[in-house]
Write a structure and sequence with these properties.
176 residues; alpha+beta; Alpha-Beta Plaits; 2 domains; four-stranded antiparallel beta sheet; 5 helices; rod-shaped
Length: 176
C-alpha cells in the first residue's frame, strides 16, 4: 500500500490485543509491528509469523561445545600431559570417559547458551548502545501498540479499531 497511512493503535490489555490482531489480519490490514511490554503468549501465531529456528541453532552450538570438550580433554589429559590420578591409567580416552563427563556436559551447555544468546542478539539486530525503536515509551511499561498500514479511509479504520478495544489511535504519514 504505497499511498496508505501508518496507524498506531494502543491497547491496555494483552487479551484484547490478541483478539484485535486476529481481527485486523482477518480484515486484510498489513501489520508492520506489535510492541509489548512483555512476551504475549500466542501473539506470534496470531500474527502469522513463522516458527523460530533458534532451537536448531542451539542444538548445533551444543554439538560444537561437546566436540570442543572432547578434543580438549583428550589433548590435555591423554596426549599432552597424562597423569596417574588415583591409580587410574591414562592410556586411552574411553577408559577415562566417566571422569570427563562433567567437563563434557558443562562445555556443551556453555557453548549452547552463550552462542545462542549471541545469535539471538545478532538476528534481532540488538547490539550495545542501540537506540530503542518503539514509537511510544509506554510500550515498555503497560501499553500494547499495533503499528499497521491502512488505506486513506481513516474514519472507517478508526471505527474498526475502536470496536476492537483500542484506547488511542494515531494516524501518521507513511515513511516508506
Amino acid at each position: 500500500m504505497d499511498s496508505g497511512k501508518v496507524v498506531h493503535a494502543v491497547f491496555d490489555d494483552d487479551d484484547v490485543l490478541l483478539k484485535a490482531v486476529e481481527h485486523i489480519r482477518k480484515n486484510k490490514y498489513t501489520i508492520e509491528e506489535v510492541y509489548t511490554p512483555f512476551p504475549v503468549h500466542g501473539l506470534d501465531k496470531v500474527m502469522g509469523l513463522s516458527p523460530t529456528r533458534i532451537s536448531i541453532a542451539s542444538f548445533m552450538f551444543g554439538c560444537l561445545g561437546l566436540t570442543v570438550a572432547i578434543l580438549i580433554t583428550n589433548y590435555i589429559m591423554i596426549e599432552d600431559w597424562p597423569q596417574n590420578i588415583g591409580g587410574k591409567p591414562s592410556f586411552s580416552y574411553f577408559e577415562n570417559l566417566p571422569a570427563f563427563v562433567p567437563i563434557l556436559f558443562e562445555m556443551t551447555v556453555f557453548f549452547a547458551a552463550h552462542l545462542m544468546v549471541i545469535t539471538f542478539y545478532l538476528r534481532s539486530k540488538l547490539w550495545p548502545f542501540k537506540k530503542a525503536e518503539n514509537p511510544i515509551k509506554e510500550t515498555t511499561d503497560d501499553k500494547f501498540l499495533v503499528v499497521l498500514e491502512t488505506p486513506d479511509d481513516s474514519s472507517k479504520t478508526k471505527t474498526f479499531l475502536k470496536e476492537l478495544g483500542a484506547t488511542q489511535i494515531v494516524f501518521k504519514a507513511n515513511e516508506s
